[in-house]
Design brief:
about 170 residues; alpha+beta; three-stranded antiparallel beta sheet; elongated
Length: about 170
């Protein structure tokens, strides 16, 4: 989308092509991409229900549009800096609320159910500004290093006990 102005007044969309005589009072004010954009939103040190701090990385894809009016809403009502602030605040708030509702052993199971609720929340917050959120995905959940090592050893020990029980039965 190419937005142009005449005497600093918005004149709408400019069609592509050569302008041989372009008066000095006309100017291209904004060029807005129609491409899909990926946004990464990490949330550090989120407490679970049993007070264990986890790090969660979230990735979302959005686009500006689908028409010129949505692009104008984005440019004149929100802008790139405020979109960044809005997305980071809403995603971190949602991640923290979700992680706080479960214990550390269930935190890895949140990926699918979380995406649908988060997608509708983000679309309701960004749609008035011409931004469409298309996909939300939790890419990584990291437990503290000592905890996941202990959990790994516990699982390995339980597996070994199960194998020994089967050996004794035979």
């Amino acid at each position: 989308f190419i937005l142009w102005q005449k005497w600093h007044k918005d004149m709408g969309n400019l069609t592509p092509g050569v302008r041989w005589i372009w008066p000095w009072y006309n100017r291209i004010s904004h060029v807005v991409t129609k491409a899909t954009i990926t946004y990464n939103a990490p949330a550090k040190a989120c407490p679970t229900a049993d007070n264990i701090m986890v790090n969660v990385d979230l990735s979302l894809t959005f686009r500006i549009g689908p028409d010129i009016d949505a692009a104008k809403n984005f440019v004149y009502r929100l802008g790139a800096n405020r979109l960044d602030a809005l997305l980071s605040n809403v995603t971190e708030e949602s991640i923290r609320g979700l992680v706080y509702s479960v214990t550390h052993d269930k935190v890895n199971d949140l990926r699918e159910e979380f995406a649908l609720g988060m997608l509708s929340t983000l679309n309701s917050k960004t749609a008035p500004y011409g931004v469409q959120v298309m996909n939300v995905k939790i890419t990584e959940v990291l437990l503290p290093t000592q905890l996941w090592q202990r959990l790994e050893r516990t699982t390995a020990f339980k597996t070994k006990l199960g194998e020994q029980e089967k050996t004794h039965e035979n």
